Amino acid sequence: MSAMTATDEGVRLVTKIVLLARDMNDDELSVLALVAEGLSGGRDVYGPLNIDGDSRDWVVEALQEMRDLNVYIGSAALRLSRLHKVLNGPSDD
Questions:
Q1: What Cα–Cα distance (Å) separates residue 3 from each residue in 34, 42, 47, 56?
Q2: Among the four 4, 13, 17, 30, which has the fewest Cβ within 10 Å?
Q3: CB neighbour list of residue 14: distance below 8 Å, 6 or more residues apart
Q4: Which tens digits make up the pLDDT trace of 2-27?
């Protein structure tokens, strides 16, 4: 990870995140960390996020991601259902 010089706005935002995080429980902090990890991973692959310089259609991007998420959730649910049947036998439904 390369070091970057923080702008005044960057320092303000980091301070805001720290102040908000102080009152969060472990689950909330875990969600915050997952989002930050996603941004960091995206930075590694695509470079820094630059909303003003990025011409992607964010609504289209979001809809595609939601579609993909449905596939992943459905696949995971099917896998869990199959595992449940193996462990507990078939149910009546």
A1: 21, 17, 14, 27
A2: 4
A3: 6
A4: 456 679 999 999 999 999 999 999 99
